[in-house]
Design goal:
7 helices; alpha/beta; seven-stranded mixed beta sheet; 7 strands; single chain; 244 residues; globular; 26% helix; Rossmann fold
Length: 244
C-alpha cells in the first residue's frame, strides 16, 4: 500500500452523511500515469487544493477574496472548469473530481511543465479530490452561490440509480449549501438521466425550475462530453434550478 498524497484523500474517514452511502462509485484511475502527470499530483495538487481545515471558510482558500464561491462536481477533463474560472476572475471555483487522469488534465492546463512545484495555477480555482457529497455536508450553510453538474455519469441501469448524483438523498445536501436563489446548473445528454432528473426534481420541494432547454445557454461553456453527444446524435438538455 502506498502512502496517500496530500490533497487527494482525507486524513481520516469522512463523517457519515445521512441517507448517502459512504462508498464512492466510479474509476479513480485510467491508463498509467506519465512522469509529468505524477509530478502534477505530487507537487502541484497539494498546493492548489481546498484543505479540510478551510471548509469552515472556503472563500479564504483562494489567493483572491472571491465575491462568490461556486462548485463544479465531476469536472471530467477540466475544460469547463478552466473556462469558467477564467471568465469569472472574481468568483472562487471549487473544482471537484476523483478521477486522477481528469485531475491531471486540468492541472496540466494550469501549471506549465517544469513548474509543478511552483506554478501558481489560477488564483480563483481550488481542487477537491474527495467525495463531493461530504464536501457539501461540511461547508457552512449557504456557502455556495452556484453548483454545476455537467454531463455526469448516467449509470443507466435501473439497479444503479442510487449511484446518480441527482438523487433524493443528495438534494438536501445541495439545498443546504445554496442560499435562497442559489443556482444548481445541470446538463446531461443521456435520455435515461434526463428522464431521471425530471422524475426526481418533480417530486421535491427544495428547488424551483428556472430553465429547461436543449440549446446551451450563452454563458455556459462547452465540454468534450457535449461535443461527443452531438457527434453521436444525442441531444443535451440544460437545466437551472433555483433554491427556494
Amino acid at each position: 500500500m502506498t502512502a496517500e498524497r496530500p490533497g487527494t484523500a482525507p486524513d481520516r474517514p469522512p463523517a457519515p452523511v445521512e441517507g448517502v452511502p459512504d462508498r464512492l462509485y466510479g474509476r479513480r484511475r485510467g491508463h498509467p500515469l506519465r512522469a509529468r502527470q505524477q509530478a502534477l499530483l505530487d507537487a502541484a495538487l497539494p498546493r492548489l487544493s481546498l484543505r479540510p481545515e478551510q471548509l469552515g471558510d472556503p472563500a479564504a482558500a483562494f489567493t483572491i477574496r472571491p465575491e462568490q464561491v461556486w462548485l463544479e462536481i465531476g469536472f471530467g477533463g477540466g475544460e469547463h472548469a478552466d473556462a469558467l474560472a477564467r471568465a469569472h476572475p472574481g468568483v472562487g471555483l471549487i473544482a471537484s473530481e476523483v478521477f486522477e487522469n481528469g485531475i491531471c488534465s486540468l492541472l496540466s492546463r494550469l501549471v506549465p511543465e517544469g513548474e509543478e512545484a511552483t506554478g501558481p495555477g489560477l488564483p480563483n480555482l481550488r481542487f477537491w479530490t474527495r467525495d463531493a457529497r461530504h464536501l457539501l455536508a461540511a461547508l457552512p450553510a449557504g456557502a455556495l452561490s452556484r453548483l454545476y453538474l455537467m454531463f455526469p455519469d448516467p449509470w443507466p441501469k435501473a439497479r444503479h440509480s442510487k449511484r446518480r448524483f441527482v438523487h433524493p438523498a443528495t438534494l438536501p445536501l445541495v439545498a443546504r449549501a445554496l442560499p435562497s436563489g442559489g443556482e444548481w446548473r445541470i446538463a446531461s445528454d443521456h435520455p435515461v438521466y434526463q428522464a431521471w432528473v425530471e422524475e426526481v426534481m418533480a417530486a421535491q420541494a427544495l428547488f424551483d425550475p428556472a430553465l429547461d432547454t436543449t440549446e446551451r445557454p450563452a454563458d455556459w461553456f462547452p465540454t468534450r462530453y457535449e461535443g461527443k453527444a452531438h457527434r453521436e446524435g444525442r441531444t443535451p438538455r440544460y437545466w437551472i434550478w433555483r433554491r427556494r
